[in-house]
């Protein structure tokens, strides 16, 4: 259908973790309603994905050009939610794009599912979920209904995580989701 991109990680102890993170984060993105290419792991250090036409935010001028309107948009909020759920440590301007239709697309999730409970809060889109000091906010503008839908979708991904030997990652993600459900006060459904 489209052009396929091949990405190889350097051989080493973390290469399988990067591959697993790329593959599993693409499934989580779909569950959360975030546009991201589907990623397929070929082996312990190689993934393939469909090419996304557009520009990375780095190519568009970097974070200084990222507007609050874009961050506060439905797709910006969902991207922040995705980053918090997967504990993404690397949502730099080179790791999200605007496609040819003008939509945000999340790319490069090799540093997802990090052990720190506060991983994901460094994303420029995660401010809606933090208290400004690396902790969860007192309340978030996400509807309980959306989080309930997301919970069902993420629960359905459990087998994918276990098949890659990453059941702990799924547990940690669901724990983060549970913490967010307790503070969800939004009335607007985004899914």
Characterise the protein shown here:
The mean pLDDT is 92. A three-stranded antiparallel sheet has the order 1-3-2, with helices on one face. It has a three-stranded antiparallel sheet with strand order 4-5-6. The longest helix is centred in the N-terminal third of the chain and has 18 residues, at 15-32. With 191 residues, it is α+β, with helices and mostly antiparallel strands. It is globular, with a radius of gyration of 16 Å. It is built from six helices and six strands, in the order βαβββααββααα. The chain has helices at residues 15-32, 68-72, 74-86, 144-156, 158-163, 167-183, and strands at residues 4-8, 39-43, 46-50, 54-56, 96-99, 104-106.
- Averaged pLDDT, please? 92
Q: Oligomeric form of this entry?
A: single chain
Structural class: alpha+beta
Please report the distance between the alpha carbons of the first and last residues.
Answer: 27 Å
Largest beta-sheet characterization: 3 strands, antiparallel
The radius of gyration is 16 Å
Report the sheet-strand fraction.
Answer: 5-15%
Helical run tally: 6
Looking across the biggest beta sheet, what order are the strands in?
Answer: 1-3-2
Count every beta strand, where a strand is a DSSP E run of 2 or more residues: 6
Q: Any idea what the shape is?
A: globular
* Low-confidence runs: none
Order of helices and strands: EHEEEHHEEHHH
Helix content: 25-40%
């Amino acid at each position: 259908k489209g052009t396929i991109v091949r990405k190889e990680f350097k051989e080493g102890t973390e290469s399988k973790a990067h591959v697993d993170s790329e593959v599993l984060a693409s499934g989580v993105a779909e569950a959360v309603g975030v546009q991201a290419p589907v990623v397929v792991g070929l082996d312990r250090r190689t993934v393939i994905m469909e090419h996304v036409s557009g520009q990375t935010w780095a190519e568009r001028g970097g974070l200084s050009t990222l507007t609050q309107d874009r961050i506060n948009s439905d797709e910006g909020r969902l991207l922040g939610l995705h980053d918090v759920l997967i504990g993404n440590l690397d949502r730099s301007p080179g790791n999200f794009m605007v496609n040819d239709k003008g939509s945000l697309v999340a790319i490069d999730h090799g540093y997802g599912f990090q052990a720190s409970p506060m991983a994901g809060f460094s994303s420029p889109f995660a401010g809606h979920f933090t208290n400004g000091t690396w902790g969860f906010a007192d309340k978030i503008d996400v509807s309980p209904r959306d989080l309930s839908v997301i919970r069902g979708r993420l629960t359905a991904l459990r087998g994918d995580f276990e098949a890659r030997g990453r059941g702990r990652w799924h547990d940690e993600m669901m724990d983060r989701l549970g913490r967010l459900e307790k503070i969800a006060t939004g009335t607007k459904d985004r899914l």
